[in-house]
């Protein structure tokens, strides 16, 4: 099992140990405000290989590079004016920008899977301090086995990857609970490659421009990681349930009861008062709990499509998609 250091009680030791392990070319699980990340030195090809190995992740799926400040970002990518505006408004925060990599950038091609762009993000929370001390960008996908549900707590990471990892930093439950929103600006058009923890409506409000969604979100693999089946629990998933069937777990929203829920293996409410932020923060943990209840199927009640509901529904649709394994 991995060592877990609590960043709230031992922040200095957490940073010291994390930097020591990262310098050895080994990944460390770190808390970001979105989900826990499996972080490694983005300039070290062996360290990046270890990430792909630990996750069982296909190597054509590039990693997000995490930076601690704008100077570090600008050493590796060039900003167009709109992307710069987004970075200034929303960083540190749950937004990843796809930007051209500078020729002099030391981020290794394995991190970008050979693309000429980098996915780059300045995370909020303790992970940013780790990056600042380490001094190089950290490549970090979510700290879960490829295709599984993303971790929002140190315990989730320990249960999934603990036997392969040396160190997990524990900062408590992730505040946002959904991965970052991914935006690529192309010829002045803002393209949404992945809905996530930053409501795309906020981006539209700031820029006065439309955020363009892919025509067929499930089918186009714009961000190569957006394979249809993802975030998959062990149980099957049924969306927009209007009743609970035998052997099902129920994850509902907004305090809305469903007929038959007395027979459910477990009943969880993402947000009894209908708050989408709270629902996002609870989503992955509740999926894991429903899975652990022994249900054959997890039934989800309806979640509203507005605001963060877009990203929540995206994750639910991927969890419900036909599985290739
Ligand atoms: O919130 C998050 O984004 C978390 C935390 C740890 O920061 N990270 C995360 O990483 O969700 P991951 O690897 O699970 O998802 C990264 C996504 C993938 O869909 C990948 O294909 C896309 O970003 N991506 C990375 N670099 C890209 C690039 N150059 N062009 C297009 N898509 C890219
Ligand atoms: Mg992931």
UniProtKB/TrEMBL annotation:
EC number annotated for this UniProt entry: 2.7.7.87
Subcellular location field: Cytoplasm
Segments traversing the membrane: none
Keywords associated with the record: ATP-binding, Cytoplasm, Nucleotide-binding, Nucleotidyltransferase, Transferase, tRNA processing
GO terms assigned for molecular function: L-threonylcarbamoyladenylate synthase
Pfam families, alphabetized: Sua5_C, Sua5_yciO_yrdC
Coiled-coil stretches: none
Principal location listed in the UniProt entry: cytoplasm
Keyword Glycoprotein among UniProt keywords: no
Catalysis: reaction(s): L-threonine + hydrogencarbonate + ATP = L-threonylcarbamoyladenylate + diphosphate + H2O
Domain YrdC-like: 12-198
Entry's family note: Belongs to the SUA5 family.
Function: Required for the formation of a threonylcarbamoyl group on adenosine at position 37 (t(6)A37) in tRNAs that read codons beginning with adenine.
Identification of the protein by name: Threonylcarbamoyl-AMP synthase
Gene source species: Sinorhizobium garamanticum
